[in-house]
Amino acid sequence: NSELILITQSISTEHWLYDYLIKINNFTLNFCLNNKTTCIDLASEIKSLNKNDFYDGIHTTPSGSKKIGKFISKKFEKLIK
Question: Considering Cα of 25, then 26, then 29, then 30, what sign does the dihedral take?
Fold first, then answer.
């Protein structure tokens, strides 16, 4: 009885892959909409990430991972209720 949950990704806005990731995230969101699948839009909704939350613009530091973990945890809590 599991349910598919997709989550968009976030990277530093200064990283060269940022514009490509926007396209991938938009594809993911459209897929969720068209297939009535649960999607968490991390990329658009999390506002607390900054350049200090990434080692290299993609991989998160412990502080970035903590922020993302808390964000996703809150979203899961809402889905369960």
Answer: negative
pTM of the model as a whole: 0.86
Phi, psi for residue 61 in degrees, rounded to 5: -80, 170
Q: Tell me the C-alpha distance between 41 and 31, whole Å.
A: 12
pLDDT digits (tens, 9 = 90+) for 7-59: 999 999 889 999 999 999 999 999 999 999 999 999 999 988 988 999 999 99
Q: Are 57 and 23 in contact, with CB atoms under 8 Å apart?
A: no
User: Token pair for residue 62?
Assistant: 């412990």
Which helix (H) or strand (E) segment is 40 a member of? strand 38-40
> How far apart are the C-alpha atoms of 57 and 35, rounded to whole Å?
31
DSSP state of 52: G
